[in-house]
Known about the structure:
single chain, mainly beta, Neuraminidase, 5-stranded antiparallel beta sheet, globular
Amino acid sequence: MKRFHLLIPVLLFASLACSLVPETVPASTPTSSRSFFASPIPDTPAPPTTPPTLADEDATNARQPPATVPPAVALPQAAVVYLEPGDPLTPDTIRMIDALNGWAISGASVLFTADGAQTWREATPPEALISGSQVQAQGTFLDAEHAWVVFSFDNQVPTSAVVWHTNDSGRTWIRGAPLEHQAFGEHVWAEFSVLDESHLWLMVRGVYAGAGIHYAAQFFRSANGGLTWLPLIGDVGIDYTGLVFADSNHGLMTWQTTGAYAPAPPEYAVTADGADNWEVRQLPPPSDAPDVFDTSAYCEPFQPQMLSNQSLRLLVGCFDIHDPPQEFSSYFYSSEDGGKTWSSMPLPEKVLANQAALFFFDEENALLLGRDIYRSVDSGQTWEYVKSVTWDAQFSFVDPQTGWGIARANNESALVKTSNGGALWVEIKPVIAP
């Protein structure tokens, strides 16, 4: 079904078991020259018509702002504790680093484990909480020492919100500079993409209902570990589905356009300058279903992965207008030249790409997780069925065998773990450590 889409660049402060042989195909259309998240270019003043005088220079100097002083580094502050030893808990999200160490978030509390998620130490930044508000921590976790956290209150990330950073497993936290973001909506939240101890990116996103569902976002970049954040320029109205970086320059971003006016071919964008500029491209149709972009109501990209700045992976889901979809098909896409050409493979029939989680552990080994679990040992060319479960989950895997999930069904949730790649799951009843 043909649809139309208009991207309006604005300052955001205003706002797999298949055996088919894959076929490598080039992008369906030439690479778009459209760029966004571009840094603003200042106007160049016209040259003076007469030589400046000393008085002119004095007046000009008087108008100059004082030299920019680097922000003072805030002193570390001790983590705060809201939970009592022995308190039971069920995390909202979990991010394990290895078989023993990991992080979790439960409401306003940030948690750290050193025994495989059995017991947890509270490691919450000393944010000033608003009395009577529903507080939610949102963060990203690089390793067992480094994490970044921001807070929302009543589904709103405050304009002057700060990002807290720890380098000692959450025992102390350093307060970053206020974001002063301009994202808006009935629900405003934060999403991170972290590369290393210094380089990370932040999306402050908002959604609101008007004549349909509308999205707003502001992007930030930090090159000093989150002490300060550079606001970037972008588009309004985009529902982002993923943002990843292979190094400090090369990144991959995907989004879905499921409104009434949206493009039939799925789009993605790549950057080679750390997110100052993005090159928007269209994906080619699957080699075994060349007309699926025209016959499906929606075909959208999800779960972008970068194994290197040239080795890209993502999922594409094609589905109808119903929620949940009544008719759908999903595809695995891979590129070894930075997205100039793509190979595609159909995924197993039960896979719904917009609800699946894709984990690549190296070039060959991968898991595809949802209510139906699959594994691949050949770079995603074939997918072997592992198990079906009766719950949805947010997953965290540290290797192809060892993983955890926050399982949810019937308004209940539980922490579960597997040691055999998802074939068997056991429940963990975590508590706050003594």
